[in-house]
Request: fold
Amino acid sequence: MTTSSEESSSLSSKTAKSLGLPRNSTQSALRFALERDSKSSLESRSLVVLLYMLLLLVWIAMNLGLIGANAGSGRQVSEQFYTNFHMFEFAGLSCLVCVEAFIIVYTRMLDWDSPLQLALLGVNVVSSFCALVIFVIDPHRFDVPAHYLEYFIQILVGSANLIFVFSAKPGGTLYRFRRVETAIVVVGVAMSILQLGIYSNIIPTDASHEKNAHFLEFSNEAMNGLFALVFAAATFSSLRAQIAEHNTRLHELAYGKRDSIDIV
Reply:
């Protein structure tokens, strides 16, 4: 009867043979397999982050376009492209919040033991889609409550960026500039609160309160997108560096120094 240790030894020998290693290099073969699996995981994560970066570029461009459209008269927006204008606004935010939540979870930045982080992500996703749904049902009737809900979401989205800052590892670029990044997040949240005050007419302005609130809104969204883009680029660079390290160790395990390499 074959024991489990014999089966493991046989499997390791087969693994070593398939990798082109000597038969007695079972330990190296197992290390090689672990390194290869770790590299594959990192490559998948880096691809997701890269796609996220492309989405952020689209997001920034969309908000710059909305700023340009908002420069027209309020009557022009209301009569010519009211629905399309606001659909970009609400649908764009819903998509970004959903993707951002996925990225935070997939790249393992979310602390599952933190009720605050879990609640923040959950409220972001639910609230953004709620604003989109009520606007689609009746754009004119639910325009105002949808905007209030959206501006509330922006405050939460800005706060969610703190997750990016505090998840930075010591020694990295984001960690070194965490104070500057925290200041940027605080400014963004302050802008969100200000636009809510302008839209509700608590803070009176000379021009249309909705138009002025939109200028702040889209500028803030573009800034949040830029912040997330910088973070994503730094994360992508870190992942590629880790992949390069795995490639080096794989090469050493396959062609030399097999007995001196340990998995990090």
Summary: The radius of gyration is 25 Å. Residues 209-255 form the longest helix (47 residues). The chain has a mean pLDDT of 75.
